[in-house]
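Hi P.,

Sorry for the delay on this. The queue was packed all week, but I finally got your sequence through. Input first:
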Amino acid sequence: MGRIKFYILFILWYKFSEDFKESGSLINSKMPTIVSNRWIVLTTVNQPTKDVKYLATLSKWNVVVVADLKTPKNWTLDRVHFLSVETQKSMSETLNLVRKLPYKSYTRKMIGYLYAIAHGAEWIYDTDDDNRPIFGGLDTFDFADELSGVRFERNHSDPIINRLFNPYLFYGRPDMWPRGFPLEYFSQHNHTDANFRLCEVQKRAAVQQGLVDMDPDVDAIFRLLHANPTKVSSEHFNRHAPSIILGQKMYSPWNSQNTLFHRNAFFTMFLPTTVSFRTTDIWRSYFSQKLLHLIDEYVAFYPVNAVQIRNAHNYLKDFEDEQEVYLKSGELLKFLDEWKCSQNSTANCAIELAEQFG
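Then the structure:
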């Protein structure tokens, strides 16, 4: 049943994310003036946090916040497009996908993506209510079509362990791994000089993830091994290492907390609804990379441009919710690396992969 549901929901997502690029407003209620084609999307169950209030001050960006059942009914903040549960119900008259998304679920964030797309988004910045841009913030991402810089590249026939990229290792923390990195590869994994190329001109990445200082996204195993109950997490990375683009058939997990998507990658933003909150964005990241490679688009990592003071979490609950990530990431990566599309269009390839992926 979960496999069928993933397949059906992805088809709906693909259809809506493509169709709504030119569709116009989804709702009739009064919303703030749209200031650009750049959108910030998040979901929250809290009153406006300091970080959300800061995001709302960014003059070049629109902000859309997606509510859930626990979100305070009186939630309001100037310049924010707030999609209350009631507003979402009105949107469901147009969007079948909205009706099918579960409540009390991080995946309702997809309603915000669709809202931004329908209102002319060219860029969507995916974040959470406990993340704040710093050190140049969103301006440190690349918006031009071409750039010079570093590329992570290996022979496509090399073992998968050699084609994996650990951004934490690259930015100076060999002791750390991002949530979703296949644990069976960590102890033997490294980057050698042969992995890196300096390119005078290359296409900018359609998905760009910035690293996060203080409390970066690691899995519960790392947190349980290193947690200090007497102080706030204070992890740091090398801010002087360059941004880096991953080449074809190079892979790395990335999350939904400090990630910029270009319009060309919108069709890959689907968050699986049949897995846990701690799994959904990781599965998306791997699924997305395979689809992006089909259309000659790429993923990039950037030095620290945000900070997170993490909302309270139960590490053991996180550990339980991450079981699939620990047990299946390597297997999933192998499947995706070997998968070949039998169709002749991006749309049909995406649907075929969704059918097999689910």
